[in-house]
Specification:
Strand order of the largest sheet: 6-5-8-3-2-1-9
CATH topology: Jelly Rolls
Radius of gyration: 22 Å
Number of strands: 9
Strand content: 25-35%
Shape: globular
Helix content: 10-25%
Number of helices: 4
Largest sheet: 7 strands, mixed
Number of domains: 1
Distance between the termini: 58 Å
CATH superfamily: Protein of unknown function DUF192
CATH class: Mainly Beta
């Protein structure tokens, strides 16, 4: 019985030391940054304004439910944080501030990854629509006034992990 248990223990130890199967996901890929409040995936995003690159960490609202909620009820948003709303297929996006206590800059990004227009310093809780001037690939929200503070403007290039 002791010999049998030893053989089982050795077999288990050898199995644990064997190389990983190719189908297993590497640990680095398995780790996804998640926002502590929303539970949404967080990805890096850059805005290139001339020679200046502005770096943000943004929450990704992908599903219809996530996009409907957006930043509603949020009372804090760091200066280099934001939320993105990928539009697939691209459409003429229109957003409002219902249940949103923070003023936001709503940045509309066209199919060429360039900013088309910015609804700056939107009014908290407003039901007025802020609308893109063309087909929108992405909507990017940041704290109100931040775009002007950084010199972000229409024509700037926006890049993120799509």
């Amino acid at each position: 019985m002791v010999v049998r248990n030893c053989l089982i223990g050795i077999a288990l130890a050898l199995a644990a030391c064997s190389p990983q199967e190719a189908s297993e996901t590497p640990a680095a890929e398995a780790t996804v940054a998640v926002h502590p409040v929303s539970g949404l995936e967080v990805v890096p995003l850059t805005v290139t304004s001339g020679d200046t690159v502005h770096n943000f960490n943004v929450e990704v609202a992908r599903s219809g439910e996530e996009q409907t909620k957006g930043l509603m009820f949020r009372t804090e948003l760091g200066p280099n944080e934001g939320m993105i709303f990928p539009r697939n297929p691209p459409d003429v996006a229109s957003f409002w501030m219902k249940n949103t206590p923070l003023p936001l800059d709503i940045i509309f990004v066209g199919v060429d990854n360039r900013i088309m227009n910015i609804a700056a310093q939107t009014v908290p809780y407003s039901l007025d629509n802020s609308t893109a001037v063309g087909l929108t690939k992405l909507v990017f929200e940041i704290p109100g006034g931040r775009a002007a503070e950084l010199g972000i403007e229409p024509g700037d290039l926006v890049q993120w992990d799509e």
